[in-house]
Structure formats: structure tokens, C-alpha cells
Amino acid sequence: METFNHNLSSLFSQLGLNSSNEFIESFLNDHHLEQHEQLSEANFWQPSQKRFIKESQDQDADWCEVIDQLDALLRK
């Protein structure tokens, strides 16, 4: 069985975003989720990014842990 060690940098790269620590920090400062807002429905994502997040969560894919981490960071 293949195991993956995804982190925020690899998730941002997968989403087609800059994966530098500086960009990620800026993104987290500039974007926030409302209490009941789903990460995959946030208005700052492109349709393909929303689809990737939603499908990963629905399929309990290996990206889920880091997606959950991003969700938590956007709620602070």
C-alpha cells in the first residue's frame, strides 16, 4: 500500500497555486471561512479547485488530512 505525506505546500501546488511559505501565509491572512461555510464552496476557489477539494473529501482521499488542516487554518 502506497502512503502519502502531503503538506500545505503540496496541497497548494496540487491546487495550481504558489506553494511558497510566503504565499501560503499571505493566503491564510487574506482568506477566511464563515462558521457554516464549506471549504469546497468558498468563493475564492476556481471551479476546478472546488471540485478537487470536494471529490477528495467525498472519497476520503489521501489529501483529506491536509485539506482538513487548511479548513481549520481558514477558520482562525
From TrEMBL:
<dbReference type="InterPro" id="IPR038086">
    <property type="entry name" value="DUF2789_sf"/>
</dbReference>
<protein>
    <submittedName>
        <fullName>DUF2789 domain-containing protein</fullName>
    </submittedName>
</protein>
<dbReference type="InterPro" id="IPR021250">
    <property type="entry name" value="DUF2789"/>
</dbReference>
<dbReference type="Pfam" id="PF10982">
    <property type="entry name" value="DUF2789"/>
</dbReference>
